[in-house]
UniProtKB/TrEMBL annotation:
Its cofactor is Zn(2+). InterPro entries: Aldolase_TIM (IPR013785), Class_II_FBP_aldolase (IPR050246), FBA_II (IPR000771). Dihydroxyacetone phosphate binds at G180, G208, G209, T210, N229, I230, S231, T232. Zn(2+) 2 binds at D104, E134. This is Class II fructose-bisphosphate aldolase. The keyword Zinc applies. GO terms for molecular function: aldehyde-lyase activity; zinc ion binding. It holds the Pfam family F_bP_aldolase. SUPFAM superfamilies: Aldolase. GO terms for biological process: carbohydrate metabolic process.
Length: 290
C-alpha cells in the first residue's frame, strides 16, 4: 500500500473507539518489525521518526525505506515526524513525503508558539500533510528533544483556542505521562482528555505510553485518545535482544549478524503486537484505509 494519511487513520480510530499505535522506529529493521506486527494483527500503524533518526539516516533515504516497506504491507501505514522544534527539518521531511509532523513549540512563549504553529500548519497542509501540535511540554527528554521540567501549561480552553485558530489537526496535551521510563507512578490526567473532547472533535494524542498499565491505556482510549505513541518499549526490546545475542556470541565464539537481526525483529514485532492488542486497533484495519 502507498503511505496512508495520518489524519484518516486517527479519525477512523476516533470514530470507532480505538487508538492507532504510533511507533518510533530507528532503522529499516525496526520499521519492518513494526509493520510485521501490524500486518499480523490487521492493524493500521503510524511509523514515527525522531529528528535524531532523520539526521542520522537522512530524510530521503529514510523516506524511501519506509515507503518501500509500506508498499509490501497489507494494512495502512502512515509516516510521522515526532517532536520537532526545528522548522527546517519539518520543511525537509514534508518534501520527502511524510504524512504528518509534530511541531513541538513547547519551548516557546505562547504568542510565539501560536504564530509559528499557524505557519507550520499552512506549510504542511500545502504539502498534503497533517500537523500535530504541542505547545505545553510533556515532561521528559526523547532523542534529545524535550525537558524534564514543566515549562508551559495551559487550560484546555486555551489549547482548543490555539488549535482552532492555527488549523491544527491533532492535539498533544500534557496528560500526566512522561517520555522514557517511569521512576514513580505517574498522576494520569484522563479527565483532561474528557474535557478536551467535550470542547472539540480534534484527535487527542497520548505521549509517554511506555510503562503504563493496560487499564491505563484503556481508560485513555475510552476518554477519547485515538493515537498513542510508543518509543521506549521498542528501544528496550531492540537493545536488550541485541545484547543477549551478543553475549551469546561472546560465549560461543559464533558471530552471525543476520541471526541477531532476526532475533531483534521477532522481539520488536512481539512487543508492538502486545500494544496493538491493548489499543484495540486490530479489529478494523481495512476500514482505516479509507
Amino acid at each position: 500500500m502507498p503511505i496512508a494519511p495520518t489524519l484518516a487513520l486517527v479519525d477512523e480510530a476516533q470514530r470507532r473507539g480505538y487508538a492507532v499505535p504510533a511507533v518510533n522506529i530507528a532503522d529499516d529493521l525496526s520499521a519492518r518489525a513494526v509493520i510485521a506486527a501490524a500486518d499480523g494483527a490487521r492493524s493500521p500503524v503510524i511509523l514515527q521518526t525522531s529528528v535524531k533518526t532523520v539526521r542520522s539516516i537522512g530524510a530521503r533515504h529514510l523516506s524511501r525505506l519506509v515507503h518501500s516497506a509500506a508498499e509490501e504491507a497489507t494494512v495502512p501505514v502512515a509516516l510521522h515526524l515526532d517532536h520537532c522544534p526545528d522548522r527546517a527539518v519539518i520543511t525537509e521531511v514534508l518534501a520527502e513525503g511524510w504524512s504528518s509532523v509534530l511541531f513541538d513549540a513547547s519551548d516557546r512563549p505562547l504568542d510565539v508558539a501560536w504564530r509559528e504553529t499557524a505557519e507550520v500548519v499552512r506549510e504542511a497542509h500545502a504539502a498534503g500533510a497533517a500537523v500535530e501540535s504541542e505547545i505545553e511540554n510533556i515532561v521528559g527528554v526523547e532523542d534529545g528533544v524535550g525537558s524534564d521540567e514543566a515549562l508551559h501549561s495551559y487550560s484546555v480552553e486555551q489549547l482548543v483556542e490555539v488549535a482552532r485558530d492555527t488549523g491544527t489537526d491533532l492535539l498533544a496535551p500534557a496528560l500526566g505521562t512522561a517520555h522514557g521510563l517511569y521512576t514513580a507512578d505517574p498522576v494520569l490526567r484522563v479527565d483532561r482528555v474528557e474535557s478536551l473532547r467535550a470542547l472539540s472533535d480534534l484527535p487527542v494524542v497520548l505521549h509517554g505510553g511506555t510503562g503504563l498499565r493496560d487499564e491505563d491505556f484503556r481508560a485513555f482510549i475510552a476518554a477519547g485518545v485515538s493515537k498513542i505513541n510508543i518509543s521506549t518499549a521498542l528501544k528496550l526490546a531492540y537493545m536488550r535482544t541485541a545484547k543477549q545475542h551478543l553475549d551469546e556470541c561472546e560465549r560461543t565464539g559464533r558471530w552471525e549478524p543476520v541471526k541477531m537481526f532476526d532475533a531483534v525483529l521477532v522481539a520488536v514485532r512481539d512487543e508492538i503486537a502486545t500494544h496493538i492488542e491493548v489499543f484495540g486497533s486490530s479489529r478494523d484495519a481495512a476500514g482505516a484505509a479509507a
